């Protein structure tokens, strides 16, 4: 069952051509990530708060 995510935010690193993602949060703290081109109709990746932190830490470390 898919969680009810809210407060979707588009990535600051979004491309002007629409190639971007957005992230939202569920009431239990789970973070959902989806492709904005699908207007909410596509799949949503779900991360626990600790998985999300590890994911962001890795991205930030590898981008330098």
Automatic annotation (TrEMBL):
Superkingdom of this protein's organism: Bacteria
InterPro entries documented for this protein: DUF397
Region called Disordered, residue ranges: 1-35
A Pfam family: DUF397
Domain DUF397: 7-60
Protein name as annotated: DUF397 domain-containing protein
Native source species: Actinomadura physcomitrii
């Amino acid at each position: 069952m898919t969680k009810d995510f809210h407060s979707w935010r588009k990535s600051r690193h979004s491309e002007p051509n629409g190639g971007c993602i957005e992230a939202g949060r569920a009431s239990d703290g789970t973070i959902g990530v989806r492709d904005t081109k699908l207007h909410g109709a596509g799949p949503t990746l779900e991360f626990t708060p600790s998985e999300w932190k590890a994911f962001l830490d890795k991205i930030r470390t590898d981008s330098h």
